[in-house]
Structure formats: C-alpha cells, structure tokens
Automatic annotation (TrEMBL):
Residues annotated as signal peptide: none
SUPFAM superfamilies xrefs: Phosphoglycerate mutase-like (SSF53254)
Gene3D superfamilies, A to Z: Phosphoglycerate mutase-like (3.40.50.1240)
Domain of life where this protein originates: Eukaryota
Protein name, UniProt field: Uncharacterized protein
Record organism: Ostreococcus lucimarinus (strain CCE9901)
UniProt-annotated stretches for the region Disordered: 1-24
Biased composition (Basic and acidic residues): 12-24
PANTHER family per UniProt: OS09G0287300 PROTEIN
Matching InterPro entries: His_Pase_superF_clade-1, His_PPase_superfam
Length: 193
C-alpha cells in the first residue's frame, strides 16, 4: 500500500485529480523508491490511481529503480482508486475486487470510466502494489491487518499474509484482519514492525 508523494495544493483552477507533484514530492518519490527497492518489495502487479500525482509518483519510482515498479502490461491505472479513497468504509472492498479481477484468469480487465485498461491478467502475482490516496489507503491497510496504519505522503506499508494450501487472491483479499503489517517504508528508511 503506497500513498502518492507530496503534491501542489488546490489553486482553484486545477482539478484535484490533476494536481502535480511538487519538487519536494518528486524527491520524496525517488527516496521511497530506493527504500522499497532495497527492501525487495518489487510488485508483480501494480494498481494505481489515475490521478496525476499518483501516476507521477509511480513514474518517478520506476525511473529511479530501473523500471522495477511498473513492468509493461502489469500496471493498471484506475479512476476508481481516486474516487473510492474519499468514501467511508469502501476502499478495502473495492481494492479487493480489483486485485481479484486482475489476478484471476478469464475475468478480463473491463475497467470503469476513467480507467486505463492495458494491464494483462497476472495470475502468477505474489506481490501487488496499490498506489493511491488517503483516507482510503490508510483505512484499507488498517482493515487488512486489524491495526492502525498511518501513511504520510510517499510512504508504503508492506502487508503480508501466510499462504495456505489452495489459497487464491480471492480468499486472501476476503480475509480482512488476517494480514500482518511487516514494515513501513518512508523516504528516510524502513521501519520494521
């Protein structure tokens, strides 16, 4: 779970979804990319909000660590991750549905309005990164692991779940509260939990 990096404030002329990263935000994205890459948190599939600040965060991270984040065909930009982030109590369920759809053969990537659907179905995904916004990202991470998770800008939380025999992404994502918060990556370093 990754919260986008620092972006410009609302100026009355720019739509919220179109706000770019600041100079500081670009530097923070580079730093957190290095921390996450050094820790080996390379995703097999990335689900990213289609807001400008989320896309820029992912692009900067990819450029910083030689495309480790965002392998072609394994990134999906979703307008819904932007919209659902502001709604109370729905982000975890929506994110779970997105993960299942993108990891289950035959389901296809239909997408919703505002989605950029060029992502293949990734049935072999073991690590998935979600890039988005608060309050939804914190809320979803907290629900998955059953404890309070705080995500400042350019901060990632690594959640793990033991894999049982016959486990699928559908069963894993439906099993809220069974995930473990392992560590948090900030631009300054990794905090083991």
């Amino acid at each position: 779970m990754l919260r986008h990096s620092a972006s410009s404030g609302a100026d009355g002329e720019t739509k919220d979804a179109d706000r770019p990263l600041t100079r500081e935000g670009r530097a923070l994205a580079k730093s957190v990319a290095t921390r996450v890459d050094d820790a080996g948190w390379t995703p097999d599939l990335t689900l990213c909000s289609n807001s400008r600040r989320s896309k820029e965060t992912l692009e900067i991270m990819r450029d910083e660590v030689n495309e480790a984040f965002g392998t072609k065909g394994r990134v999906m930009y979703l307008g819904s991750l932007y919209h659902y982030a502001s709604l109370d109590g729905v982000m975890r369920q929506h994110l779970s549905e997105c993960v299942v759809k993108q990891t289950t053969a035959g389901d296809g990537a239909d997408g919703e309005e505002g989605d950029v659907v060029e992502c293949e179905i990734v049935t072999d995904a073991r690590t998935i990164m979600a890039v988005g916004h608060n309050k939804g990202m914190e809320e979803a991470a907290s629900e998955y692991c059953g404890r309070d998770v705080r995500l400042q800008v350019a901060t990632a939380a690594l959640l793990e779940r033991a894999r049982g025999e016959g486990d699928t992404w559908a069963s894993a994502m439906a099993d809220a509260g069974s995930w473990t918060l392992v560590a948090v990556a900030t631009p300054e370093g990794i905090i083991q939990i």
